[in-house]
Amino acid sequence: MNFEDIFKENYLYIYNFALKLSCHPDNAEDLTQQTFLTAFEKKNQIRDAKAIKKWLTSICYRHFLMFLRKSGAAEESSIELEEAESAGKIIAQSLPQAEEEVIVADELKNLQNGCFMAMVRKLTLKQRIAFSLVDMFGMNADYVAELLEVSPNTLKGLLFRARMNLDSFFADHCNLIDAKNPCNCTAWINFRESHEKNKSLIKKTISRLDYKEKDYRFDGEVRAKVNYLYSHMPEAKPSETWFLKVIEIFK
C-alpha cells in the first residue's frame, strides 16, 4: 500500500487522537508528524491493512508518553490509582449519561471548544487521557485501559473522577449549562476584542479541578449537558501549511 495514501486516509484521525491527548494544536501537529515518520520507517511491518489505524494509534501514544517524559509532566501516584481502582469497583455504570442537546451558535463554537479543551488540561494526566479518549474520541474503554496499562475498574474510576471534576466546574460557571451562570461566551468574545491579555488571565484562574473541594454531588442534568458538549466537538484539522510540509515527505 502506498504510504502517501496511508497518510491521507489516516492523518485527520491521528491528529484528532493526538489533540485529545495533548489538548494543544501545536503539540498535536508535532505528535502526528512524529507518528507518521515512525510509521514510514517501519512500513515494512504492515501486514494487515485493516489494522493500520490501530497500529498508528499505538505509535502516536508512545510518542505522547515520550513527550510527557521530556516535559516533566506529573503522573498519578500509586495511591491515586488505587483509589480510582476502588471507586471503579463500586461504580455500576461507567458509560456517559443520556445526552441532552445543547444548542451553541456557530460564532461561539470556537471559543466554547477552546474553553472546554482548556478545562480538560486541568484534570490529572490519566483522568485527561481516559476522558479524552473514551468520552470525547469515542474509543473502546477496554482498549483505553490497555493503553493506560490499568485495569478496567481503574479506568472506570478515572472516568468517574474526570466527569465529576468537569461537571462540578461547569455546573456553576458555564452559561451553556445553566443560564444563570456567570461565564457567557458572547461576553468573553466582546472582552477578548478589547482586552488581548484575557488568555493569560484565564490561565491564572484555575490550576487543577477537584470536585471534592467543592463537595459537588452528581447531577444527571449537568452530566448530560456536559457530555453532549464534549462528545459533539467537531473534528479538528491541522494547518494547511503543516499538511503540505508533511505530505511532501511521503511523495
TL;DR of this structure?
This protein has 251 residues and is mostly helical. The protein has helices spanning 3-22, 25-41, 52-71, 78-90, 106-120, 125-136, 141-148, 152-171, 185-194, 198-205, 220-231, 240-249.
What does this structure look like?
This protein is mainly α. The protein has two domains: 71 residues, Rna Polymerase Sigma Factor, Chain: A; 154 residues, no CATH class. The chain is built from twelve helices and no strands. Helix 1 packs across helix 3. It is globular. The protein starts with a helix and ends with a helix. About 5% of the residues have low confidence.
Write the layout of secondary structure elements.
Elements (H helix, E strand, L loop, with lengths): L2 H20 L2 H17 L10 H20 L6 H13 L15 H15 L4 H12 L4 H8 L3 H20 L13 H10 L3 H8 L14 H12 L8 H10 L2
